[in-house]
Amino acid sequence: MGETLLSIQDLTVTYRARGEDIAAVRGVDLELARGEKLGIAGESGSGKSTLALALLRLLPATATVTGRVVLAGEDVVDMTWGRLRAVRWAGASIVFQGAMHSLNPVHTIGRQIAEPIVLHERIDESGAALRVAQLLEDVGMPAARASAYPHELSGGQRQRVMIAMALACRPDLIIADEPTTALDVMVQAQILGLIDDLVAGSGISLLMISHDLSVLSDVCDRLAIMYAGRVVEVGPARDVHHQAKHPYSAALSAAFPTIGDPSSRLRPHGLAGDPPDPESLPTGCAFHPRCPSRREQCDVIDPRLWSVGDRHDAACVLVLPDQGASLAGHVQQPTETKVAR
Ligand SMILES: Nc1ncnc2c1ncn2[C@@H]1O[C@H](COP(=O)(O)OP(=O)(O)OP(=O)(O)O)[C@@H](O)[C@H]1O
């Protein structure tokens, strides 16, 4: 692995709502190297977006965060607001789903792309305009479109503008949260191809979130699978997609077609039930009530990630070397190290 750019350590996010604590992210550890592309997959509600928002402290005030998010050597959780403003856009930027809601309808897209550049770099208007023109061309749009308003663009073009904004300050990391969800299939493929091309060889790291594992395994080097706020498996994209070690990753792989393999569309999902309510998680492994490979101890043991191959870990009693001995040592205990919003 190359130099580590992002290190997420024992990250926990709890929302307070309706007088209840909602455990959205529970003790997540992840590493991302410079230039690496990491995909995060999981069903709706598994905590993917909460994790992404926590990386740049974009969570609402009802969220409590513990743990560490070390980006290029600095802990984002501890950072002053002034330093955080500098890190947003220039250190890491986010492309959200549904660009229409993220763009300001009353400003031209040129002005919106220029905004972070002017904010972060001492650059005059004509310098910013040149950069905007180049960025638009980089994302496959004519530079003249800088004078267009968001409503004058198609969904795919608006998402291209979001990508141009994310690239504007040449960040180390781009976080893409379901960047193609609202788009039709052809445009989805174009946008994914564009992200792939722009990141390739640039040294920019990519953290891409999707509920669709086949999309992620097509674009990313590594995959992390989330379930009920935990990472249950992480490893090389091909291995996690095609030789999953955790029963949930295996079920998720079977649930989606492999791109270019029409026969895979026929495979059943194979999972009964829904993900658990984060306000009342099951005891032991949160997946055990739905798990087709469930063992007797799964309602008491909540396994930590365990190495199952080269940079490939899974959190399941099935992969532990000695299921009989010291299983208690594998129970995850959330630690409260730092608190921030
Ligand atoms: N602002 C909030 N207040 C309270 N609960 C929240 C808030 N945002 C998210 N949650 C809850 O936190 C859990 C994780 O949600 P999150 O949106 O991170 O999951 P996700 O995997 O990104 O889902 P999706 O794919 O649907 O976006 C869910 O149970 C969700 O209802």
UniProtKB/TrEMBL annotation:
Q: A single Pfam family, by name? A: ABC_tran
**Which GO molecular function annotations are given, in alphabetical order?**
ATP binding; ATP hydrolysis activity
Signal peptide region: none
Topology in the lipid bilayer: Peripheral membrane protein
UniProt domain ABC transporter: residue ranges: 6-253
Family matches, as SUPFAM superfamilies: P-loop containing nucleoside triphosphate hydrolases
- GO cellular component terms listed in the entry, alphabetical order: plasma membrane
Query: Which keywords does UniProt give here?
Result: ATP-binding, Cell membrane, Membrane, Nucleotide-binding, Transport
Compartments, record wording: Cell membrane
Q: Which CDD domains match?
A: ABC_NikE_OppD_transporters
Q: Which GO terms describe its biological process?
A: peptide transport
**Keyword GTP-binding on entry:** no
Look up keyword ATP-binding and say if it applies.
Answer: yes
Annotated family: Belongs to the ABC transporter superfamily.
Query: Which PANTHER family does this chain map to?
Result: DIPEPTIDE TRANSPORT ATP-BINDING PROTEIN DPPD (PTHR43297:SF2), OLIGOPEPTIDE TRANSPORT ATP-BINDING PROTEIN APPD (PTHR43297)
| Name under which the protein is recorded | Peptide ABC transporter ATPase
Q: Which organism is it from?
A: Knoellia sinensis KCTC 19936
What is the organism lineage in this UniProt record? Bacteria, Bacillati, Actinomycetota, Actinomycetes, Micrococcales
